[in-house]
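hey all, quick one before standup. I had two proteins in the batch that finished overnight and I want to keep them in one place so we stop losing track of which output belongs to which input. First protein below, input sequence then C-alpha cells straight from the run.
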Amino acid sequence: MTDTQHLRTLLGKRLEVVQEIARLNARQLQNRQIASGLELEVMLCERNLSRGEDATAAAQRLAEARAQHAAAENALAEDARDLMEWHGQLDALDREISEP
C-alpha cells in the first residue's frame, strides 16, 4: 500500500470515528434531557407527597420516577465512557496521520 493509499484509509477511518462521536454526542444530549425531565418529575412527586396528596399513588410514582432517573443517569455514565473510548481512537488516528 502506498503512502497516499494509507493516508486515505486513515482519513476514512477518522471520518467514521468522528461520525460515531457525533452520534454519541446526540445520544448524550437526549439522555441528559430525559434525566433532567425525570429530575423534575421526582421533585414534583416529592412535593405532592409532602402536601399529603394520595400518599400511596404519590409514593409509587415517586419510586418509579427515581428508578427511571437512576436509569437515565446510568445511560449518561455509559455515554461518557463510550465518548472517552472513541475520543481515544480519534487521538490515536490523529497521531498516526500526523507521523511523517
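OK second protein, same deal, sequence then C-alpha cells:
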Amino acid sequence: MKRIFLNLKAFSLITLLGLAASCSSDDDNTGVVGPEPEEARMITIAAARMGDNPGDGNGGTLIYSVTSAEAKDPSVSIEPFDNGFIVPSNRTARLQASEDGSTIFNISYAGDTGGNYTKYDVQGGQNFEQIGSAISIAPYVGTAPRWIKLFDGDQTGAAVYASTEHQFDDNGTPADESDDTYLRTDVTLGVVTLDLVNSAIKNFEETNVALPADLEAQGFFIGRTDMPTLNAAGDKLYIGARLDKVDPETTERDRNFDPLESITIVLDYPSLLNPEVIMSGVGKGNTSGYRSINAFEYNGAVYQANQGDPQGSHILRIGSDNEYDDSYVFNLDDALGVDGAYILAWRPAANGKAVVAYRHEGSAEGVAGAQGFFALVNLEARTAQQITEIPYDPDFYLFQYQGFAVDGNEIYVTQAPVGENGNIYVIDTETGAVTQGAELVNVEGSHFIGAF
C-alpha cells in the first residue's frame, strides 16, 4: 500500500530539472519545443476529528492533498489524522477551494480564532503554505460565521447572519408588560463580502427583511440565513433561508408548524441593499442548507436544493428574472422512487449533471443518525439514480459533509463510516462510471467531510 508523504510540487520540479539536464542541445537537434506539462490537479481531503461524541467533528479539522491520479489509485493510502495539516479552527473548519484546487480558503469556526480568514497554497501531502495575512470577519458576522465562496473566479467570499427581536404594542402597563400584544419579529440581515485575493473586507451592510404581513402576524420569521449565491448576471445575491415560528400568544418557539413554501432573500449586488423575499410555488421547507453549498448557477439560472420538504427534497430553479421558476419541478422522491428524500449536500459539474448526497425514510439509523447515499442527477432531464458502486453503511455520516472536488466532468467524493476506513470515489458525470480510488485511513469516532 502506497503512503504519500512528499511535497508533490517540489518532487515535480526536481523531476523536470533532472529531465532538462539529461536532454542537452546536442541530443535534440529538431528545434521543436514540446508543450509544457500540465501541473497535476490537486485534490484536498478534509477530515473532522471527534470531540466528545463519535461523529461530532468538534475535535478539529485536518487536511491532506494528493494529485488527481493518486486520488484515483486504490493502492494509495491517505492518513490525514496522523499526517495531515491542522486547519486553524476551534471546531470543524469551514473550508472552500479555488476552482482549480490549488488554493484552500478557511474561516475558523468558534473559539478565540473564530471568524479568522486564511488561505493556503496547496503543495501536496500535509504541506499547505499560508498566503498573506489572516483577517477577521468576526466584527461583522461573529465568531461562528456562515460563509461561502462565490463563483466569480475565486474573487469573493460572502458571509451572512440574521438577528431577531420580537416586537410588541404597548397595551400593558409598565408593571405588567405581559399584557403587551405580539406584533411581529423583526429580522436584521447582515452580509459581509470578502476580497479573497487581497484578504480584505469589500463591503458590509445590515438591512431589515420582512415577510408578508399575514405570515408575520402568525409568528413566522426568518430564523437562519446561509449559502449566498450570485446570479448569472452578477447583479443579484441570493441568500437561502429557514423560516421559524413563535406562538403569538406566548412568544414561545413553535416547532410543530407545517413547513411553508421555500423562500430566498434577493439583494442587489455588490451594494447588498434592497432586500426582497421570493417564494417558491413548488417546494416547501428550508433553503439555507447546512455545511455544503446549497445553490449553484448553471446555464443562466440558479438551481437550489431545499430541505425538510414534506414531499421530499426538491431542486428548485430561480430564473434570470430573479423569481422562482415554478414550471421547473424536480422532486427527488419521484426521481429516485423513495419517500422523504433529504438533500444533505450536492454539487453539479459544468455539464449540468450533479452528485447529490441524501438520506430518506429507508435510511438505517447509525452511530450519528440516519445517514445516506449518493445519487447522480441530471438537472436538465430532471432524473436521478442512486450510485450503487459507492457502498452504503449506516455509520457513513453525511450531515456535516462540506466539499465535492470538481475536475471537468468528474466529481470526487469521500466515503468512510465514522471511525472506519473508506475510499475516495470518482464519478464521471457524463458516463456515470465510478472509480474506487485511494484508501482513507480513519481513527476512532472521526469522519471525513469531503474533497476539495
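Flagging for whoever picks this up: The first strand starts at residue 2 and ends at 3. The first helix runs from residue 8 to 22.
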